[in-house]
Write a structure and sequence with these properties.
Elements lengths: L4 E7 L8 E6 L4 E6 L8 E6 L6 H9 L4 H5 L19 E3 H8 L3 H10 L6 E2 L5 E4 L1 H14 L4 H12 L5 H42 L20
Length: about 230
């Protein structure tokens, strides 16, 4: 199991020219991330260190003096150890593929949201990976829910801009919802009228089909033309 680090030290603890990472958690448990990568890529193997240590400086001094490091090298690697990257607020960072999978969208959709101003552009690692804060998942889900109600991306971009400027957009959101509701009710009225018209047409066509003779055309489409007024 990975420890919960509160103090870290980065140095070449084994003299191989590669920077290693040393962690000590609140319990005084130490963990060494031994760099086994090459000149261009860091690849860490996690090794626990026996004993209790007051802080990372004490442990680092012991490693440099050769009192601790030899023991650490004899221990087996910690399986499934994952060093997660976090931002300055302590949020876990998500790669674009992970965020897209959790949100149920494509990576292209994420980029489209960025262009439309409803999702902040991610930062990139030195390797070119796009990293989003974990809070971006909530933002994407909010955007998807709002789109389901018919609120446009442009309107959402304006709302989020108001938030970032320190202005609560609650009244604007309510106006958008009311506008959308009015549009839906208008569509419902139009569809209801269309349904009544279709029902009348079908009933008329049924009468025409029943009253025709064998092989006689009913001229159903022609019946849709306006009938001339009787003089």
């Amino acid at each position: 199991m990975p420890v919960a680090p509160v103090r870290t030290a980065v140095a070449d603890f084994d003299g191989d020219g590669r920077a290693d990472v040393l962690l000590v958690d609140r319990r005084g448990v130490g963990l060494l991330l031994h760099n086994e990568g090459d000149a261009t890529t860091a690849k860490f193997a996690a090794k626990p260190i026996k004993g209790k240590f007051a802080d990372v400086r004490q442990l680092a001094a012991g490693i440099r003096a050769g009192r601790v490091f030899a023991k650490a090298l004899t221990l087996e690697y910690v399986p499934r150890f994952i060093l997660e990257e976090v931002n300055s607020e302590g949020e876990r960072m998500l790669r674009s593929g992970e965020l897209a999978g959790l949100a149920g969208v494509s990576k292209d959709t994420l980029r489209h949201y960025e262009r439309m101003g409803v999702l902040d552009a991610p930062r990139r690692t030195d390797s070119g990976y796009r990293l989003y804060p974990e809070s971006a998942l909530r933002r994407v889900r909010i955007v998807r829910s709002a789109l389901d109600l018919g609120i446009s991306l442009r309107d959402l971009a304006d709302i989020f801009a108001m938030r970032e400027a320190g202005t609560p957009p609650c009244e604007e959101i309510r106006k958008l919802a009311n506008k959308r509701l009015a549009a839906v009710e208008k569509q419902i009225d139009a569809l209801t009228a269309l349904r009544d018209q279709l029902r009348s047409v079908v009933q008329d066509w049924d009468r025409r089909l029943e009253g025709r003779g064998p092989g006689e055309p009913a001229y159903l489409l022609e019946s849709l033309l306006p009938q001339p007024e009787e003089s």
